[in-house]
Amino acid sequence: MQKIVVYVYIYLFVQISVDPVALDGSSQPTENTEKDGLCNACTWRQNTKSSRIEAIKIQILSKLRLEQAPNISRDVIKQLLPKAPPLQELIDQYDVQRDDSSDGSLEDDDYHATTETIITMPTESDFLVQMEGKPKCCFFKFSSKIQYNKVVKAQLWIYLRQVQKPTTVFVQILRLIKPMKDGTRYTGIRSLKLDMNPGNGIWQSIDVKTVLQNWLKQPESNLGIEIKAFDENGRDLAVTFPGPGEDGLNPFLEVRVTDTPKRSRRDFGLDCDEHSTESRCCRYPLTVDFEAFGWDWIIAPKRYKANYCSGECEFVFLQKYPHTHLVHQANPRGSAGPCCTPTKMSPINMLYFNGKEQIIYGKIPAMVVDRCGCS
Fold first, then answer.
1. Which contacts (CB < 8 Å, 24+ apart) does range 102-106 have?
2. What's the pTM value of the predicted model, to 2 decimals?
3. CATH 3.20.20.60, applies to 40-97+270-374
4. CATH topology of 40-97+270-374 equal to that of 117-257?
5. Which of 148, 174, 193, 210 could form a disulfide with 186 if both were Cys (CB 3.0 to 4.6 A apart)?
6. What is the dihedral of CA 186, 190, 196, 199, to 10 degrees?
7. Which residues contact 309 (CB under 8 A, 6 or more apart)?
8. pLDDT in tens, 254-265
């Protein structure tokens, strides 16, 4: 008896869907059916876009392992954001993330974001180290997730103030250590001699990969560093504690780590625009604007092309899933049976502040829809 009731219900459902009937029993007009169908498709696509944007916001926070968006104001960002060459290059390169699906077929294996570069700003030490009676720059904290054998490059960037005439500058980077019996409290990391010309100040990078790896292997040995950069007259040119007009000139560490393996995937699908009358499963353009979210903590890109899938899945599945096809004909927007979903996705590169006010450059997998299909 239950089976009969189910069959009757399905039959009525199909009949009503295929041949609509008005409440008074008369058949509804069919002359505007095609127009109504197009309007319904537009409404469906608009709903899909809205859902996709909300899903992207949730995915980004989840993949970055953030419980909520970092609360960092634009004024704080202006103070913290280094005006250094490597960072400016990243910002210029990824200001607007483009759709590269036409020439790329690589996809990350993992769900979570893959860190490629970390920009670490100096912070207060857990234990205050003093030399010559006053605190010295700088102390850097590192995430325990950074493995010493994954570090490819580690550069300390320092800003040297401008000079009024051609000058030779002597730069010393010292690593602070626990006081020894003879009173020694530091050991040398790097020393170099630079020739500076009059004009604007300059950024100088120093290789500190070996020191960083030692710190990662033995965190208790990380007591900080001291930066010295004296000209011929003994004037210290290094900006260690920025003064008025020196926002963004703090020393910082640029650390690059190895990326995860990638696999190659190829697929094919339809591409449509917002004015398309295509009813089949298709990829549509969608640009996500982070500034519209109020997400100032994302440095770059400010916008990126995410795309989304929309459309019907019908005849392709007729032979393999005949009953599913029937249900889709009756209710093409229903949840049963194959759906129009992404079949290939690619990552985006992102430069952002995390909750600890560190600048991270990483890759977030599966954020751009490259192809759509029925599955």
1. 104/346, 104/370, 105/264, 105/265, 105/266, 105/344, 106/262, 106/263, 106/264, 106/346
2. 0.59
3. no
4. no
5. 174
6. -70
7. 48, 281, 282, 283, 284, 340, 341, 342, 369, 372
8. 998 886 544 444
Distance CA 337, CA 323 (A): 9
With a CB cutoff of 8 Å and minimum separation 6, the contacts of 114 are 108, 259, 260, 347, 362, 363, 364, 365
Contact in structure between 224 and 215 (CB atoms under 8 Å)? no
**Ramachandran region of residue 248, left (φ > 0), alpha (ψ -120 to 50) or beta?**
left
Q: Are 353 and 359 in contact (CB under 8 A)?
A: yes
Beta strands 340-353 and 359-374: pairing type? antiparallel
Out of 2.40.50.140, 2.60.120.970, 2.40.30.10, 2.60.40.10, which CATH number does the structure's domain 117-257 have? 2.60.120.970
Residues of the chain with pLDDT under 70: 1-42, 90, 92-111, 113, 115, 125-136, 145, 259-268, 315-337
Sign (positive or negative) of CA dihedral 352, 355, 357, 362: negative
Q: Write the CB contacts of 133 (distance below 8 Å, at least 6 apart in sequence).
A: none
| Helix (H) and strand (E) counts in the chain | 7, 19
Q: Return the exposure string of 363-375: e unless at least 16 CB atoms fall within 10 Å of the residue's CB, then b.
A: bbbbbbbbbbbbe
Query: What residue spans define the domains of the chain?
Result: 40-97+270-374, 117-257
Q: What is the pLDDT of residue 132?
A: 54
Q: At what angle do helices 322-330 and 2-18 cross, to 10 degrees?
A: 50
Q: Quick check: 203 and 84 in contact, CB under 8 A? A: yes
200 CB-contact burial (10 Å; exposed 0-12 / middle 13-18 / buried 19+): exposed
